[in-house]
Amino acid sequence: MPRPATNLRESILDQARRLLLAEGYTRMSMRRIASRVGCTATSLYLYFKNKNGLFHALMDEGMDKLFVGLDHVLESTDTTPQERLRGVFRTYLDFGLENPEFYEVMFLLHPRHTRRYPPEKYRAARNRLERVGADIALARGDDPDPAEVQVLAALAWTSLHGTISLLVAQRVDARLDQETLVDRAVEHAMALALPPQS
Amino acid sequence: MPRPATNLRESILDQARRLLLAEGYTRMSMRRIASRVGCTATSLYLYFKNKNGLFHALMDEGMDKLFVGLDHVLESTDTTPQERLRGVFRTYLDFGLENPEFYEVMFLLHPRHTRRYPPEKYRAARNRLERVGADIALARGDDPDPAEVQVLAALAWTSLHGTISLLVAQRVDARLDQETLVDRAVEHAMALALPPQS
DNA sequence: ATGTTAAGTTAACAAGGTTAACCTTGGTAC
DNA sequence: GTACCAAGGTTAACCTTGTTAACTTAACAT
Question: Are A129 and A104 found together in one domain?
Answer without folding.
Answer: yes
